[in-house]
Automatic annotation (TrEMBL):
GO CC, alphabetical: plasma membrane
Name of the protein this chain belongs to: Multidrug transporter MdfA
Lineage: Bacteria, Pseudomonadati, Pseudomonadota, Gammaproteobacteria, Enterobacterales
Subunit structure: Monomer.
Originating organism: Salmonella enterica subsp. arizonae
Lineage: superkingdom: Bacteria
Protein's UniProt keywords contain Nucleotide-binding: no
MF terms in GO: sodium:proton antiporter activity
């Protein structure tokens, strides 16, 4: 893997240099706890909307479905119009959809908004990771990617604990204000520090060529096997997070 260093290497730039990945990690954390932290509060959600317990795991399913909805498009799109505008649009999208949850009138609207919130996950993998790889030398890329992977592991552990404590003292709606606030802080940081690293800006996005590229990817058995293996490894943890409010409480 070849990473292009786009930041000045003098010491005066060090703070700004690492401010970008830190803000990206903060955004990643806000989207991940947006899934894990609300699950303990889902019993209060379904009670408020007078819905059945089957909606508890459905909320998480909708969120994760949103997380795979635009993965295929955002990467090629950011190649052509720029990483910065696509990434910043994703953060704004998450903020707006979190706050819109406060206006939901029934469980169906709530679940649909959870799907829309989940789309924000797409921007991390398709745009954020690519920008990191293009912004730093290989050794630094590895360290930052490891940090982001640790956030993905910490959120399922920390989120449910904080969420369970939250619903005992505060209304569940406040969680979405917290998610939006964390994402807003990340937005201002990314707006200030995120570099533009796309190298194909101005090119036309061809869906025919895009389809051809994805057909080649699907034909790569080693890649498909690895991707499926990662997904199946995550299934037990995701199932536990989705069902734990019902099982435990």
């Amino acid at each position: 893997m070849v990473c292009i260093t786009v930041y000045n290497q003098v010491s005066g730039w060090d703070v700004r240099r690492y401010f970008f990945p830190l803000c990206l990690v903060l955004y990643e954390f806000s989207t991940y706890i947006g899934n894990d932290m609300i699950q303990p509060g889902m019993l209060a959600v379904v009670e408020q909307y007078q819905a059945g317990l089957d909606w508890v795991p459905t909320s998480m399913t909708a969120y994760l479905a949103g997380g795979m909805f635009l993965q295929w498009l955002l990467g090629p799109l950011s190649d052509r119009i720029g990483r910065r505008p696509v990434m910043l649009a994703g953060v704004v999208w998450f903020i707006v959809t979190c706050l819109a949850t406060l206006l939901a009138k029934n469980i169906e609207q709530f679940t649909f908004l959870r799907f829309l919130q989940g789309i924000s996950l797409c921007f991390i993998g398709a745009v954020g990771y690519a920008a990191i790889q293009e912004s730093f030398e290989e050794a630094v890329c590895i360290k930052i990617t490891a940090l982001m992977a640790n956030v993905a592991l910490i959120a399922p552990l920390l989120g449910p604990l904080v969420g369970a404590a939250w619903v005992h003292v505060l209304p569940w709606e406040g969680m979405f204000i917290l998610f939006a606030a964390l994402a807003a802080i990340a937005f201002f940081g990314l707006q200030r520090a995120m570099p533009e690293t796309a190298t194909r800006r101005g090119e036309t996005l061809s869906f025919k060529a895009l389809g051809r590229d994805y057909r080649l990817v699907i034909k790569n058995r080693r890649f498909v096997a690895g991707a499926l293996a990662l997904g199946f490894v995550s299934l037990p943890l995701l199932a536990w997070i989705a069902q734990s409010p019902i099982i435990i409480i």
